[in-house]
Here is the input.
Amino acid sequence: MRDVIEIRGLVKTFGRFRALDELDLTVAQGEVHGFLGPNGAGKSTTIRVLLGLLRRDSGTATVFGEDVWSESVSIHRRLAYVPGDVSLWPNLSGGEVIDLLGQMRGGLRADRREELLEAFELDPRKKARTYSKGNRQKVALVAALAADVELLILDEPTSGLDPLMEATFQRCVREFCDRGGTVLLSSHILGEVEELCDRVSIIRTGRIVETGTLAELRHLTRTSVRAELAAPAAGLGELAGVHDLIAEGRRVSFSAETDALDAAIGQLSEAGIRTLTSQPPTLEELFLRHYGDILEDEPGAPTQDDGR
Amino acid sequence: MTGTLRLLRSALRRDRWMLLWWAVGLIALYWLTAVSVAGIYDTQQALDEAAAAIESNPSYVALSGPAQGVDTLGGQVAWNCQVFGGVVIGLMTMFLVIRHTRAEEETGRDELLRATPVGRLAPAASGVLVSLLASLVIGLLCGLSVMATGLAPEDSLAMGLGLAGCGFVFTASAWTAAQVASTSRAAYGLAGAAVGLAYGLRAIGDVNAAWLSWLSPIGWYSALQAFAGLRWWVLGLSLAASAVSMALAAWLITRRDYGAGLVSARPGPAAGRMGSAAALTARLHRPTVLGWMAGMFLGGIAYGAIGDSPGEMLGDNEQMTEMLAAGGVDLLDGFYGTALVMLSVIACGYAVGSALRPRHEEESTHAELLMSTRATRVGWLLGHVAATLIGSLLVLASAGAGLGLGYWLVTGDGAYAWGITWPVLQYVPAVLALSGVTRLLYGVLPRWCALGWLPVVYVAVVLFFGEMLDLPDWSRWLSPFEHLALVPAADLDPTPILIIGAVALALSVVGQAAFRRRDVG
Ligand SMILES: Nc1ncnc2c1ncn2[C@@H]1O[C@H](COP(=O)(O)OP(=O)(O)OP(=O)(O)O)[C@@H](O)[C@H]1O
Ligand SMILES: [Mg+2]
Here is the structure.
């Protein structure tokens, strides 16, 4: 399948600060790609480079196979963007903004516009200045989702939406994908990522540290196991890949890396399993590990500040 | 009002550089004037001649105030500084007050503060206090700097306190404007219009109808008559007016909703007809252009309505008439020629503000949203450039039309009215050249864009003080307005107009080219 977004070795510096450091990212056609990472990791910066707003220092970045800087306008005909911090023209009404952005993206589907306004319960007659944060975001979302485009670039699009609207958003994104669209979704809301994303990339201090399907990422983390045994188990502690072992008589609990799981369960069944519960890593654990472990591995890693 | 003092301290810290620059500018104005006046007019005869020139020339009076005590050193200093100083302190207080009131409310920063244990009025009150305090301190320092050159202490002090009085009134009017308008842009517009109105009222008043000057805080400053029979009681007018206006503002605060203006926002259309960046740009620029057109039209009418009476002031001064006639300058032509230059210099304020608009669009991330669509960088910026160009043309044309109309209404002399209307267009390239500097900064050093105001200050200083401060020729040469013929007093000279036009074009083109290559946001 063709890659819609392809970034190789992308470097972007602000003065002496390296915001993106040899970043690689590919998003295939038809997928929803989650783009995750702690605050200040460089998600918005990557997106701004993709939109041709920022000039890169080195590396290549293409969307639809075209260079993001020199061909930005022809790329923009085929995508819609929702910024993380939606700021609208205070004196325009929501409807005016939606139609303006729609026209500038090459036309809106009027029927879809109506559907979306209804689904998001948005009053298009209000002046932008009087919208709440969530409603401002809805204006940008309706404008993007009603446009006839192939790619959506969404930068934390739901940070102000209530749970009901969050569900509506997810439904709309799925409909968009059913029509063959591709989505790059930056988000801190893990439930949303789990629901929507086919693949995710995790970025830290300007680099992609992990990329793959959620199943693949889970594979990289540990499963926690709890068991009650017929007899105390021996040899568990010697197994490579078994961590946090607590053995109290015939009860044991530990966490095992995926590769060590088979051997560990083998040891348990030798001792005779009475009860067994095992938990795959939760998404939270997955991300805490990826957001946190690099700091542990690299004590000198720079701390992030988010001042612009 | 709890917490006002703590907030005041933090506001002072936040504004310290801005305050310092305003203070340095104003004190330098007063001190340099006092020093150079003493240098230029070293004999009483020199003073008498200068006084005669001022008294006989209404354009001087309209520009800088009534000729009172101008045959003394102190009177000269006061005449040179006061009116201009009143405008400057008006602009300073406007920026200080609105920055701390409406702008804070608009961005929501104020909300953070209000949630802490401070009184409801405290954040606004601290901003207003900064402005009052700054006016008072700067006023006193200006008075002291004049006193330091050896002029009469009491009158020097009055000059300083009169300046502070203007600051007080404009602080209060800006605060009121911040309650009425619902956006900081509109609040700046209203408060700026108040300063402009004060200047305009006294200009007409001083030339023609003294009672009008009594309606203007800047008029009161002149009416204080420092170095010309000091009248301390006039200061009471400033104090009373600012107290009334501040009470009005405080009352309005309790009458309106937080975050809203006096009139609450009405719903807009559910669907829009704008479909391009150009249409949006036109829509964004329209209110500002209309506001400036109205203001400049009225300003023009006010000047024009002085009619041909500037000549009457000369009636009993035959010697002066002969002198002027020998110099080949018709008084009326000179008066309206100067009026046109002055209106054009004011229009530079429009042009630079308009050239700063794309920066505002970029900072508020509107540009980012637009440029994720089919809008190109070049096209988007070109739209703003076109808006500034057309806007400058319209604003200047309105000023000229007002001037001509005012004259025609009063005198019925249509031919002469036309003769003082069209020449305004020769200033279009000069005004655009000033906005071109801002455009260049926008492309090359976007963070320093606001420095685009400096050339406006520069041009104004050269216009008002070039002669008196005896600025070197090269420095006057830098102001485009110094190269243009004073039509109708002189014949139109197309060469400088074309050269300045080319400079304006070059500045703008380089700025736009640089913008193509830089980061947005
Ligand atoms: N214009 C700029 N000038 C200087 N530094 C910048 C600029 N824009 C971003 N940065 C820095 O680059 C880094 C990455 O910022 P970015 O906005 O991409 O983070 P992010 O991953 O989107 O974070 P968040 O999750 O908080 O939105 C931050 O440390 C930020 O301070
Ligand atoms: Mg971000």
Chain B has two domains: 1-261, 276-521. Residues 313-317 of chain B have pLDDT under 50 and may be disordered. Residues A 14, 17, 19, 37, 39-45, 84, 304-308 surround adenosine-5'-triphosphate (ligand 1) (CB under 6 Å).
